Structure formats: C-alpha cells, structure tokens
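Structure ticket #2291
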Amino acid sequence: MATTSDFKNGLCIEFNNDLFTIVEFQHVKPGKGPAFVRTKLKSLKTGKVLPNTFNAGVKINIARVERRQYQYLFKNDLGYHFMNLETFEQTFINEDIISAPAFLKDGLEVEILFHADTETPLSCDMPAYVVLEITYTEPGEKGNTATNTFKDATVETDAIVKVPLFINEGEKIKVDTRTGEYSERVKG
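Resolution: structure written out below.
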C-alpha cells in the first residue's frame, strides 16, 4: 500500500479493477479546503488516458510490473510469438496489446510489460521507428521532391504507408510506429 505522496510518472497502480500508469500528476493545496492530487491515468488494457482526482493521503495499491526485452519471431493461429532475449523462453501474445502490429518484422526487438505477480503480458511497446523495405509502389519520378504529394507503398510487413513521389520499390524507409507515417529514406 502506498499513498498519494508516493506518486511519480510511470508508476503502475491498481484502480477501479484495472491497471493504470500515471502519465502526469500535480499536488494541489488550495487556500481553502483539503489538499488533493490531480492525475492523468493511462489504462494498460484500453490505452485510454483518463483524468482523475485523489484526495491527499488516500491509500493506493501499487502494481508490480516488469519491462523485458523480447525479439519477434513469427505469427500464427495462437498469436504473435516472441523470444525472451535473456532466457530464450518463447511466449505468445494477442494482437490487441501490441502498439503497432502492422510494422512487426522478423527479428525486431520490442519491450513487453508484464504484471509481475500474475506473469501476464500487459502491453508490447515497439521501437519509435522501424526500417522497412518497400515491396510495391508506383514508379517514382526523379526530381519530384519539392511537392508535398504522397502515394501508397506496400512495405515488407504488408502494411501500406504514404510515401513521397520520389520513393521507389526496393528502397528502405524509416516509419514512425506511433503514427504509421513515413519519416525518411534510409541510404545503404
């Protein structure tokens, strides 16, 4: 058990029969009335950010969570298979807790958040950017870099990304996994 004075960003708490991480918090001591803590809590199940206010000194259950490095192996009927980089044990998780499953490629290293008491995976965080090869797109136009026009391109994971007109098939691009948008062309 902890109190509101133990709050810090990233702390995982049990609240309303769900697990939340504290995104933001602020202790408020008004001139009149009792102190309170204004927070923004992110649900680990749904990913929604909810505002909430706690009275100062309220007891809160802290959930023990662990972040572990895993490597993506493959996908089948059971789900997405990952291998622990320290113990080499394999685990599989459902698509709904992966932040951007469309950009998972073989060998990609991800960080999986586990509930330490129950050993259940809570979320799978992708790297901010991944480098993917373009498998199909319309032919590019040389010198067409001034316009802000985009075309569809299929990458090696079968995801479709909007890319500038000068990008060609076989080139590698950097994709932002948080937004699914093209970031830059990768040389070499």
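Closing remark: Residues 131 and 174 are 4 Å apart (CA to CA).
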